[in-house]
Design a protein that fits this description.
- The chain has 15 helices and 2 strands.
- The chain is mainly alpha-helical and about 325 residues long.
- The protein has 2 domains: about 130 residues, no CATH class; about 130 residues, no CATH class.
- The longest helix is centred in the middle third of the chain and has 32 residues.
- The mean pLDDT is about 90.
Length: about 325
């Protein structure tokens, strides 16, 4: 899995040179990076569905016990397919969206490809501290992408609003992840979920995790930043604010739901965040006339619905054929 991240890094660093050489057609070449993630996920489909979970562990900061630990289970496989597939399609779309004389394409291409790599790392990270690093990288890259049109006040304001809200939630999430790691005696995400710690400190940690998820996925009361972020170029809205970045909070809820969905604090918060966001987003969408705002509030509503589903849902019963 590390080679997929390296491919994104190499493509992001080479994006300015590619744009200088090929113009907007360089986005077709950049699309190969997220496409490689989707192809990698597809190549593991049958084995992942059979219960095989590929892992990759590399030393990072041995003195602190930090590792580059990656693992792909069914949830990671699905998210990797989504992030890679949609990312490739959006980059292909960029090759026709921007005019041949558009400014800032070198910076935009590199940042968008780097964001795709950060999302890939986020969904396959098996170390909670590594997950936080990728989480914050998506925040930084989204700030740069939302504010791509630096001469537009609405874009600058939306970018600042998004980074303040999501960074605050990210810091709360970091507190929760550290507490969980200390209480569990390990920072491996798969081990924490398999044998979740309990206690008062863990309850506070769960609240911190849900705060981080709420800010990232634009759940109430933090839903206001997503419609404002529609000031970004359309490819950014399509990738970050419909398919990738806003799904990071949903992914976090889905990742920890098997461990804590039976606890009272989890159920109360998930119902309040999910159902409230679904209703508020749907109501606001009905009152909009601008198409991008209709889509923005509709997305907010569906994010609430998905959080409610994955946060409280139960495992599907086996089909008669599999019994």
């Amino acid at each position: 899995m590390l080679f997929v991240l390296v491919a994104h890094l190499a493509m992001a660093l080479g994006a300015p040179a590619l744009v200088s050489l090929l113009g907007r057609r360089a986005f077709l070449v950049m699309a190969l990076a997220p496409a490689s993630a989707a192809v990698y996920a597809l190549s593991w489909t049958s084995r992942v569905m059979e219960g095989e979970h590929p892992t990759s562990v590399h030393a990072w900061v041995p003195g602190l016990g930090l590792e580059l630990a990656f693992r792909m289970d069914t949830l990671s496989w699905l998210m990797l397919l989504l992030v890679g597939g949609v990312g490739a399609l959006v980059l292909v779309y960029c090759s026709a969206y921007f005019s041949p004389t558009a400014h800032g394409l070198r910076r935009f291409g590199g940042t968008l490809t780097a964001f795709a790599g950060a999302m890939v790392g986020l969904v396959v990270a098996d170390d909670v501290l590594l997950l936080f690093v990728f989480w914050e990288l998506t925040t930084v890259f989204s700030y740069l992408l939302i504010g791509h049109y630096a001469d537009r006040k609405a874009g600058r304001r939306a970018a600042m609003q998004a980074i303040v809200v999501t960074t605050g939630g990210g810091l709360a999430m970091l507190v929760g992840l550290v507490v969980l790691g200390v209480q569990a005696g390990t920072y491996r995400l798969s081990e924490i979920v398999a044998d979740p710690p309990t206690g008062g400190a863990v309850t506070a940690a769960v609240v911190c995790l849900l705060v981080g998820a709420a800010t990232k996925s634009a759940l109430i009361p933090f839903h206001f930043w997503l419609p404002a972020a529609m000031a970004a170029p359309t490819p950014v809205s399509a990738y970050l604010h419909a398919a990738a970045m806003v799904k990071a909070g949903v992914y976090l809820v889905a990742r920890f739901a098997p461990a804590y969905s039976d606890t009272t604090v989890w159920r109360v918060l998930v119902v309040a965040l999910g159902a409230g966001t679904m209703l508020v987003g749907g109501y606001r969408a009905l009152r909009q006339y601008d198409l991008k705002l209709v889509l923005a509030f509709g997305t907010v509503s569906q994010l609430g619905f998905i959080v409610l589903l994955v946060g409280l849902g139960t495992q599907a019963p086996p089909s008669p054929a599999s019994r």
